[in-house]
Amino acid sequence: MISVEDSIPKKGDKYLMGQDIIWTQFNDVNFYVEDIDQENFYLVVLKKLFPEIKINRIFPRGGKEPVLKEARKSLRNKKKVFILDLDFDEILDKKESLNNVFYLKRYSIENYLIEKHAITEFLKEENSKIKKVDLKRFDLSDFFKECKDILRDLATNFLLIKKFELGNKYLKIEPHRDCDFRSNPCCLRPTITTPYFNSIENKLKLINPRLKYHTQLAKHRTHFNSVLKVLINIPGKYLIGILKTKLKKLFSISQMTIDSFAYRLAKNCQFQELQYLKVDILNYVK
Q1: Strand partners, 83
Q2: What's the confidence (pLDDT) of residue 25?
Q3: Can you give the residue ranges of every domain in the chain?
Q4: Residue 248's pLDDT is what?
Q5: DSSP bridge pairs for 101
Q6: Coil, strand or helix: which one is 103?
Q7: Tens digit of pLDDT for each residue in 148-169?
Q8: CA 145 to chain CA centroid, nearest Å
Q9: Contact call for residues 102 and 283 (beta carbons, < 8 A)
Q10: How far is residue 213's CA from residue 166's CA, in Å, rounded to a whole number?
Q11: Are 107 and 64 in contact (CB under 8 A)?
Q12: Could you tell me which of 245, 246, 281, 239 has the C-alpha nearest to residue 106?
């Protein structure tokens, strides 16, 4: 006998559009998100946030616009809830107001994974004999300050890319290779950032010669000039990448992908900073 899973087509547009029809009977509420291939991760997060709601499958749509498109067609269906990353939408005044769309208050869901409790439990899983005094080797406040120093200029350039529609891809970094943790302050190595920043400056000049790169950089850097703004506005995957590298250096944690690391953090998160989302969604679906 063919199982429900086997009867579903392989992932593609038709699959993404049709799976909610098949799985509606297994969910009290259908949750729609952006990222494909992170279903298990989102399932962990949403089940922890909504233990009172039956959720067996979430529905990724492969981007923000496909989620919004589906949301616009489902305004009267309170069994469908759409969750969007904030990205730079608030800074750029691009948030769309729909009663069934719920924006995160930080750049992405990964920005909510950096909890002291979750990190401590993760380290205990890695080494059940770890002592409290050893756990103090990692200081969360110091970590955020390092992230501000390392990522502020990079994130500011990302914001310029989005605001002026430059078309440059975001620079991918490998923190163990590209971050200089010994410098004061910590930074990304100029060998990787200088060519990238130059390419953005040249593209900005090409699109609008009147826009001065360093003037725009200084103007938009204010969105990343405090620890709180770092936690809100810097892409979470970059923060998680640096966190993983720091824990590897301090505690020799086992080798794992960034997705596996994020998944394990999510399992241990209390998500107190997402309680607003829980309240808003429960008020909507009741």
Answers
A1: 102
A2: 72
A3: 4-111+274-285, 116-268
A4: 97
A5: 82
A6: strand
A7: 999 999 999 999 999 999 999 9
A8: 19
A9: no
A10: 12
A11: no
A12: 239
Count of Cβ atoms closer than 10 Å to residue 265 Cβ: 23
How far is Cα 36 from Cα 41, in angstroms, rounded to an integer?
A: 11
The distance in angstroms from the start CA to the end CA of the chain is 37
Mean pLDDT of 223-243: 97
DSSP state, 109? G
CB contact at 8 A, 21 and 80: no
3-class SS of residue 81: strand
Kindly report the pTM of this predicted structure: 0.90
Q: State the alpha helices, DSSP H only, in the chain.
A: 4-7, 13-23, 39-49, 64-72, 116-126, 132-135, 140-163, 175-178, 190-207, 213-220, 227-233, 236-251, 258-268, 275-285
Cα maximum dimension of the chain: 67
Whether the CB-CB separation of 49 and 274 falls below 8 Å is answered with: yes
Residue 158: both structure tokens together: 């990302």
Is residue 87 within 8 A of residue 108, CB to CB? The reply is yes
Cα dist. 141→13, 124, 146 in Å? 43, 20, 9
* Residue among 92, 113, 63 at smallest CA distance from 247: 113
CB atoms within 10 A of CB 251: 17
In sign, the C-alpha dihedral spanning 257, 260, 265, 271 is positive
Q: Which amino acid is at 55?
A: I
CB-based burial, 116-144: b 16+ in 10 Å, e otherwise:
eebbebbbeeeeeeeeeeeeeebeeeebb
